[in-house]
């Protein structure tokens, strides 16, 4: 597949994207509303950040217990269930007088069930499209996520001027329900990719296999850690610039959209493989500018430019698929999504704590500095691995017949 038009001619791909678009829109509108609600109630940058991005930290637990379900459960049923669970959770969060402790209990529950979403959706892209369509399909998926974040945060920011955060949460609940309906009507019922029932032992065994290769370990760390540190800094927009937070999130999504469009559609394959480190550096370096505590306009420019660097994930996901056997694709992508979400959650907690002790601007700068350091370290480790003499597949932790490429 060489064009986005060919993707839309593929049966089921359009309803798959539409259901995801509705889910992403609800997530952004609801997340901004919840973060605003908690910040108004507590005045705490830490609690506000964790309320918005805390569900991602909870995905670490979900990944340990549930991740084998990405290949062992019917995908349509899983996605319908996710939409309905998030609709119910958002409606509960909109209840007047809900204690902060109860808010975080709901957030934890949402994070646990969300751990299945990344692997199931990634596996469906593989199922719906041909092998040569994965990168193009994934880039369009990422671009749609950026667009829906941009539209969702912009819409959410505008709605919060006229509506209460609780009303916005109810709107998000309705959109989650629409996502479940589109999934049910637009996708066919598929059998699970792998036999057997999902279990803790199956999840751990496959995760151990995926983690056994040095090449995959470095790829996973490159996907998770620099990204998680930057998203942690992003979680402080509400406390850094309360009146402009929606705009900053929307422009960040615009930058992400532009990066995925350029890398997925315009950059030649040979060049794309070399862009992982430069894009991860681009993701972090503009945030160092926050040390000067810029105003809303300059902050928006820095956020837009930096967010182009999120396209590094597309490059690294392509590398991960080359390093992973087909039968493990769903859980491999699920482990990526869960690990990334968990690191984003940890980054949020760390950034919120730093902001509580210093200031939001200082915390954003420190998170960006750490991201640059990790990226350079991983690049050095990768170069060292390339210079190592070839070793037997067993020493590298490969499965029989699995080719470990660049």
User: What is the share of helical residues?
Assistant: over 70%
Number of strands: 0
Report the biggest beta sheet as strand number plus sense, adding barrel if it closes. none
User: Which spans have pLDDT < 50 for at least 5 consecutive residues?
Assistant: 389-406
Shape: globular
N→C terminal distance:
23 Å
Number of helices: 19
Structural class: mainly alpha
Mean pLDDT: 83
Q: Determine the strand fraction and express it as a percent band.
A: under 5%
Structural Rg: 20 Å
Provide the succession of SSEs. Answer: HHHHHHHHHHHHHHHHHHH
Strand and helix map with partners:
Layout (H helix, E strand, L loop, with lengths): L3 H5 L4 H30 L2 H22 L2 H4 L2 H19 L6 H29 L5 H29 L2 H22 L13 H12 L2 H21 L2 H4 L4 H22 L2 H4 L3 H9 L11 H12 L4 H11 L6 H29 L2 H28 L5 H4 L10
Helix pairs in contact: 2-3, 2-7, 2-8, 3-6, 3-9, 3-17, 5-6, 5-8, 6-17, 7-12, 10-14, 10-16, 10-17, 10-18, 12-15, 14-16, 14-18, 17-18
Plain-language structure description:
With 406 residues, this protein is mostly helical. The chain contains 19 helices and no strands. The model is unreliable at 389-406 (pLDDT under 50).
Summarize this entry quickly.
The chain is an all-alpha fold and 406 residues long. The chain contains 19 helices and no strands.
Relevant terms:
single chain, 406 residues, mainly alpha, 78% helix, globular, disordered C terminus
């Amino acid at each position: 597949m060489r064009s986005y038009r060919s993707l839309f001619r593929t049966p089921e791909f359009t309803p798959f994207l539409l259901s995801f678009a509705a889910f992403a829109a609800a997530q952004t509108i609801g997340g901004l509303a919840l973060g605003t609600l908690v910040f108004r109630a507590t005045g705490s940058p830490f609690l506000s950040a964790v309320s918005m991005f805390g569900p991602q930290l909870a995905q670490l637990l979900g990944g340990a217990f549930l991740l084998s379900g990405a290949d062992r459960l019917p995908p349509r049923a899983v996605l319908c269930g996710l939409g309905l669970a998030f609709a119910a959770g958002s409606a509960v969060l909109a209840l007047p007088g809900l204690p902060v402790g109860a808010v975080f209990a709901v957030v934890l529950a949402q994070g646990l069930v969300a751990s299945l979403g990344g692997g199931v959706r990634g596996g469906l892209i593989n199922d719906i499209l041909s092998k040569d369509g994965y990168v193009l399909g994934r880039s369009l998926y990422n671009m749609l996520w950026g667009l829906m974040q941009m539209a969702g945060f912009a819409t959410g920011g505008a709605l919060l001027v006229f509506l209460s955060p609780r009303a916005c949460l109810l709107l998000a609940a309705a959109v989650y329900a629409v996502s479940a309906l589109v999934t049910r009507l637009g996708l066919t019922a598929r059998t699970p990719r792998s036999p057997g029932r999902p279990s803790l032992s199956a999840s751990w065994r496959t995760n151990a296999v995926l983690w056994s290769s040095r090449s995959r370990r470095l790829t996973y760390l490159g996907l998770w850690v620099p990204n998680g540190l930057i998203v942690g800094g992003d979680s402080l927009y509400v406390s850094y610039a309360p009146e402009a937070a929606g705009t900053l999130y929307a422009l960040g999504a615009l930058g992400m959209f532009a990066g995925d469009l350029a890398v997925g559609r315009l950059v030649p394959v040979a060049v794309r493989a070399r862009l992982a480190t430069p894009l991860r550096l681009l993701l972090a370096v503009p945030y160092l500018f926050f040390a000067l505590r810029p105003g809303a306009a300059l902050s928006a420019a820095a956020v837009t430019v930096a967010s182009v660097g999120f396209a590094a994930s597309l490059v690294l996901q392509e590398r991960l698929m080359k390093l992973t056997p087909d039968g493990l694709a769903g859980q491999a992508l699920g482990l990526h999504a869960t690990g990334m979400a968990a690191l984003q959650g940890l980054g949020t907690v760390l950034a919120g704590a730093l902001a509580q002790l210093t200031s939001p601007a200082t915390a954003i700068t420190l998170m960006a500095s750490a991201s640059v350091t990790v990226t350079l370290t991983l690049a050095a480790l990768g170069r060292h691995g390339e210079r190592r003499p070839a070793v037997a597949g067993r020493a590298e932790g490969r499965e029989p017949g699995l080719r470990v490429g660049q």
